[in-house]
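Quick entry, no commentary yet.
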Amino acid sequence: MIESPDVVIAGGAAMGSATAYYLKALEPNVQVVVVEKDPTYRFSSTVLSDGNVRVQFNLEENIQMSQFALEAIEGFSDRMAVGEWKPEPSPRYQGNLFLTDETSIEAAQAGLARQRSLGCDVEWLEADDIRDRFPVYAGAGYLGGTYGARDGSVDPNAVLQGYMRRARALGVQFITGEATAIKAERRRIAGVALATGEVIRTEKVVNATGAWCAPLAATAGVDLPVEPVMRTVYVIDTYLDNRGLPSVFLPSGLYLLPEGEGRFATGWSQPDDPKGYDFTFRREKFNDAIWPELASQLPAFEALHLVSGWTGLYEVNTLDGNGIIGEWPDLGGLFLANGFSGHGFQHCHAVGRHLAELILGRGTSLDLSRLGPQRIVDHEPLFENPSRII
C-alpha cells in the first residue's frame, strides 16, 4: 500500500470510484487509495439501484449533474476500457413521464421551465395526450405530465466496474478494509483508521461511504443529518404490452419502470420507511400500499403478479434531501459526497469530477457551491421539490 497517499477515499462504490478516476485523469501523479469494506458490493446502494437517470429535477444543480451523466454515458464503454475489457452500461432511453395533479402542477411546471432554459428535451403532455400516446397509463386524477424523452436507465454495476477498473489501471490502489475512524489534528485531516488498527496517514479524505457516512463522519466530530433508510424495489408481471413505454412516476412518488415483456420494476418511498441497515425483502408493503395505489391510479395495473424484488438503502439527508458535496468548513481536508437521498448513482459522474477538481485546487466545471456542506452547518436547507419524493 502507498504510504501517506495524497488522498484516501473511504467507500469504493460508484461515487468513490468515480472520484478516484477523475483525480487520476486530471492529475496522473496524485497518489490515491480507495478503502472498500466489501469488494463484492453485495449491499452497495450502487448495484442495488434501479439505474434511472433523469434531467427532470427542479434544482438547477441537479439538472446540470444529470445532463453531465447523460454525456458521460455516451462513449463510456470506450473511455473506461482496460485492455480488451469494456464495461457495457447498456443505456435505454425509454423516457420518464411524471404525472401531475393539482397539488404538484405548480412545482412541475416551474421545473419544466428551468429544464427547458438549460436545454433539456422535456415537454408538457395534457392528460388526453397521455391517454392517446400511452393508454396503459390512462387514469383519473392527474392533469397531465412532464415527459423527458432522453431520460432513461443504465446498468449501475457496469458504471461501477468501469470507473473502478479504469481508476485501478491509472494507478489508484484499492484495498479491502473498513474505515472506522477519521483522524484529525488541529482541525485538519491527519489520516484514516481501519478496523485492523492500521492508520493510513493522509491530509485529504473523501467520505463516500453512502448509507454508512454519518457514523464515520461522527468520528471526526462532524454531525451529518443523514440516515440509512430501507427502500424496496418490487418486480411485477402484467398482461400489458409495455413496448415503447416510458417509465412513469405518479404524483405520490410511486413509480413503474418497464423492463419488457409485460414486466415492470416498481417502488414507493414513504416517510415511514424503516431506518437502519436491514436488507430483508418483505412483501407486505407491496400488498398493503403499492398494489392498491397502482390499481386506483392506473386501472390497467389492477391485475398483476409479484415476481421478485430486492431491498437496498437510501442515504437520506434529513435536512433537505439533496447531496452534500464538498469540503467540510471546519475540518480542512475532509471532502464529502453524502446524503443524495436516492439520486446519488446518477450523479456520481458529476460529483466525482467536482470533488476531484476541488481536491486538486482546480476551477470547477459546475458551480455546486449551494450543495456544499456550509448549508448543513448553517441549517439552511436547499429543497429540490417538496411534492416529489422518489
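second:
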Amino acid sequence: MALFENINLEKGMYQSKGKSLTDVLESLDPSDNYVGTQYEGLDAFSRQLKRFDIKVSGEGSDCVEKFFQSSNSAALFPEYVSRAVKQGMNECDILSDIVATVTTIDGMDYRSIHSDLSDDDKSLKIVNEGAYIPQTVVKTSDNLVKLHKRGRMLVSSYEALRFQRLDLFTVTLKQIGAYIAHSQLKDAVEVILNGDGNNNACKAVSSASSGELTYSDIISLWSELSPYKLNAILAPTDAMKKVLTLSEMKDATAGLNFQSSGKMVTPLGAKLLHTDAISDDLIIGLDSTCALEMVKAGDVVTDYDKLIDRQLERATVSCIAGFAKIFKDASVKMTY
C-alpha cells in the first residue's frame, strides 16, 4: 500500500500557520518519493484525490457528493475549493506582469521600505581614494500598507449541489477567483496612481495633443521613466485601440506575428496590458521590476469548518492583500 493511502485526513490540518493542506500533505508524503512511479507529476493533494477516486475535471468528472463519501475525503473539499479559486485568479492574472515582488505576512500590520533617490543619487560617480562614498538611505515607510479583504460567500445547500458535476462547480469557483483578481488589480492601480499614503503618488505627464494618443507620446512616456525601463503599459480599451491602430504599430512583420501567434505587437518592447481599472483618458507606464510590492496576509482562505461539517450551507472564500510603492519614480501616468 502506498504511503499516501495511510494518511489520516482531518480538519486540524488546515490550522497549520502559513501552510495550505497541500503543504501539510507534502511534508507527510513528499512528491520526491514517487519519481519513476505512476504517481510522478502529481502533488500530494492530487494523490489523495486518486486515493478516493475523485475526478474533479474533464469528461466523466464526479459529483460534489463524492467528496463526502467519508470523513477523510470530506477533509479534501476546502482545499479543492481554494485551488479552484486560485486557478481562476491565475487565469486572468495581470498582477504578475506589474508586481516586482510578493511579500507574505502572518499578521495585518506591515510597513514597507523605500529609498528616495534624487537624480544625482542615481548617478554613481567616481570616488577618489579616501573620499566620501555617497550613500543610499533605505527607510521604513511612515504609514502601514492598506490591506483589503476580497472574497465571496458561498451560499447553497448540500442537497442543491450534491449531484452537480465537479467540473461545472469548478467553473463557478474559478469565476470567484477572477473577481478577486480583478478587484486586486484595481487596488494595485490605485496605489500606482495615488501612492500608498507615503507621499509617493505617480508622476503625471500630458500628451502632445488633447484627446489623441500618438507614437511620440509613447516615446515621451519612455523618456520620462528614465533611468528606469518602460517594460509594462497599463491601458483601458480606448487607449488600447489608439495604440494598436498607430501607423508605427501596423508594420507588416508585426501584423504577421499577431496573425500567426496571437501575440500583440508591443510599443518599444513594453508589454501592453489591457485593464478597465483606469479611466479612458489615461495610460500608465512603469518599470515592473521595481515599481510595486504586493503584500499578502496568507493565501486564499476558505471556511474549512463549514465546508467539512455542514457541507456548504454558508462559507466564505477570501484573500487579503495590499500594495506598496517601492520606487516612487518607477511609474508615470499620461493623460490624453
